[in-house]
């Protein structure tokens, strides 16, 4: 949310379901390009697993984040990467780009 709105919120509230954020980025140099980035903050709790997979099925890339102060959050990174890889495929049946 900080990247999109340039506002840092100290008291984090867990996502319930999915939150959506959009940011317009202009690329300069050579050909000027305008990009519309959509960020989908997907709940990490187990009870939302089936719901959230429907949201990222057609994603073209992903960013997996975790809480540095929570070792369980870090351990779940492998689970999320596996879930993304098994749910999303690009046009050539390859896994989509993913950042940690």
Automatic annotation (TrEMBL):
| InterPro entries tied to this protein | P-loop_NTPase, Small_GTPase
Gene Ontology biological process terms from the UniProt entry: endosome to lysosome transport; phagosome-lysosome fusion
Q: What GO cellular-component annotations does this UniProt entry give?
A: late endosome; lysosome; phagocytic vesicle
Q: Which GO terms describe its molecular function?
A: GTP binding; GTPase activity
The answer to whether keyword Nucleotide-binding applies is yes
- What species was this sequence derived from? Arion vulgaris
Which of UniProt's keywords are assigned here? GTP-binding, Nucleotide-binding
Q: Does the keyword Nucleotide-binding apply?
A: yes
* Protein name in the entry: Uncharacterized protein
The text of the family note is: Belongs to the small GTPase superfamily. Rab family.
